[in-house]
Design brief:
- The structure holds two protein chains of two kinds.
- Chain A has helices spanning 2-8, 14-31, 39-53; strands at residues 61-67, 72-78.
- By secondary structure, chain A is α+β, with helices and mostly antiparallel strands.
- Chain A has a two-stranded antiparallel ribbon.
- Chain A is flat.
- The termini of chain A are far apart.
- Chain B has helices at residues 16-29, 46-50, 60-64, 70-73, 99-112, 126-133, 146-161, 164-167, 184-188, 195-202, 214-222, 233-245, 262-272, and strands spanning 3-8, 34-38, 75-76, 83-86, 115-119, 137-142, 174-182, 205-211.
- In chain B, strand 3 (75-76) and strand 4 (83-86) form a beta hairpin.
- By secondary structure, chain B is an alpha/beta fold.
- Chain B has an eight-stranded mixed β-sheet, sandwiched between helices.
- Chain B is 42% helix and 16% strand.
- Chain B has 13 helices and eight strands.
- The longest helix of chain B is centred in the middle third of the chain and has 16 residues, at 146-161.
- Classes of the chains: A alpha+beta, B alpha/beta.
- At the A-B interface, helix 2 of A face helix 7 and helix 10 of B.
- Bound molecules: adenosine-5'-triphosphate (ATP) and magnesium ion.
- Adenosine-5'-triphosphate (ATP) binds at residues 9, 12-18, 40, 45, 122, 180-181, 210, 212-213, 216-217, 220, 234 of chain B.
Chain lengths: 89, 273
């Protein structure tokens, strides 16, 4: 079996690619669970506003609502692109 | 009080109606008074799978709108006296169902039946939400395929937030994973998600594993739920599923490739003994 796998090539099996993709998707979906219905719209509109000024990716924005006993915190994380490659290293 | 079980999935065409028909039939064969309701208003299918399409007179919408009584609309299964079918309307649209109307129907049925099985329409919109709203348990039908798994996770989100149990802060809906159309050969080849991966991703209890099977099409051609075909793999896998829903602990079958046929096994087994 092993030899056969080897002969078939190094290519990653499609099912394991599927699994990795799903793990990311599901983690993302679960992050949004139990949040108010307006959150996706709010996220989209905030993203649109930010994009008017800075060029960011669709998934560069992360928004979450945490509620404690007596206060709720709306947290907004935006990953801005680096100003030139120098900043990277 | 009946136990209300919704059969749901998000994604269309994954085997909800096949599963609802098999599970309802199986529960009835095991002596439970069972009614199975088609919530797919406008696109009914359950009557065909149950083989009672020519006996449909009234439907769920008629009952909710007060045009017919429950007794008039329910069809008694011709094979099992414990089993009744409440068909969906073929003509009305989904808005004909109201939350209050559905609640009344379920409450009335609750007094007479042990199990109420709700066959959900596809999607995550109103129709699917109505089908799951009053549920005590949910069978989440999932195929070993990315879009089906993702949609199942969406449905799990709805079950835990948009149901009556969630809104009233009662014990949550009991969620069961039912993996269908599983093909162990393709899993072995590495081209189909395997059962453990699906379980790991969705993280809910497994209630059954139904293999991809020729028996399913044969059963739907004939209008006889596949669980009646007790020689078939799918029929047996659904029977196991019903046992687990009733709280029994039965071993999982059909997870790996059936390597040898009966004859080969007889010879092979004889030689080794
Ligand atoms: N285990 C199986 N093996 C082979 N074919 C299957 C299996 N389960 C379901 N099918 C086939 O898949 C198709 C869809 O099944 P079914 O109608 O039960 O799905 P559904 O989820 O109710 O669809 P919809 O979302 O449209 O209501 C049918 O043609 C059925 O015969
Ligand atoms: Mg269906």
């Amino acid at each position: 079996m092993r030899l056969l796998d080897f002969l078939k090539g190094e290519r990653k099996k499609s099912a394991s690619v599927a699994k990795e993709r799903l793990q990311i998707i599901v983690a993302h979906q679960r992050g949004h669970r139990g949040q108010p219905d307006y959150m996706p719209m709010l996220e989209q509109e905030l993203l649109a506003v930010i994009r008017r000024y800075v060029k960011v990716d669709q998934d560069a924005i992360n928004i979450s609502l945490d509620s404690d006993n007596d206060c709720s915190v709306l947290e907004l994380n935006v990953t801005l692109p680096n100003e030139g490659e120098a900043a990277k290293s | 009080m009946a136990k209300i079980i919704v059969v749901t999935s998000g994604k269309g065409g994954v085997g909800k109606t096949t599963s609802a028909a098999a599970i309802a039939t199986g529960l009835a064969l095991r002596g439970n008074k069972t009614v199975v309701i088609d919530f797919d208003v406008g696109l009914r299918n359950l009557d065909l799978i149950m083989g009672c399409e020519r006996r449909v007179v009234y439907d769920l919408v008629n009952v909710i709108q007060g045009e017919a009584g429950l007794k008039q609309a329910m069809i008694r299964d011709k094979r099992s006296e414990n089993l009744h079918i409440l068909p969906a309307s073929q003509t009305r649209d989904k808005d004909a169902l109201t939350l209050e109307g559905v609640e009344k129907v379920l409450m009335d049925l609750s007094e007479e039946f042990d199990y109420i099985i709700c066959d959900s329409p596809a999607g995550i919109e109103r129709g699917a939400q109505l089908a799951l709203y009053f549920a005590d348990e949910a069978v989440v039908v999932t195929n070993p395929e990315v879009s089906s798994v993702r949609d199942s996770d969406r449905i799990l989100g709805l079950l835990s937030s948009k149901s009556r149990r969630a809104e009233q802060n009662r014990d949550p809906i009991k969620e069961h994973l039912l993996v269908t159309r599983y093909n162990p050969n393709r899993v072995n080849d590495g081209d189909m998600l395997n059962l453990d991966d699906i379980r790991e991703i969705l993280a809910i209890d497994l209630v059954g594993l139904i293999p991809e099977s020729e028996a399913v099409l044969r059963a739907s051609n004939q209008g006889v739920p596949v669980i009646h075909d007790d020689k078939s793999d799918a029929g047996q896998a659904y029977a196991d599923t019903v046992s687990r829903l009733m709280g029994e602990d039965v071993p999982l079958r059909f997870q790996s490739v059936q390597k040898r046929g009966l004859i080969a096994r007889m010879f092979g087994g004889g030689g080794r003994r």
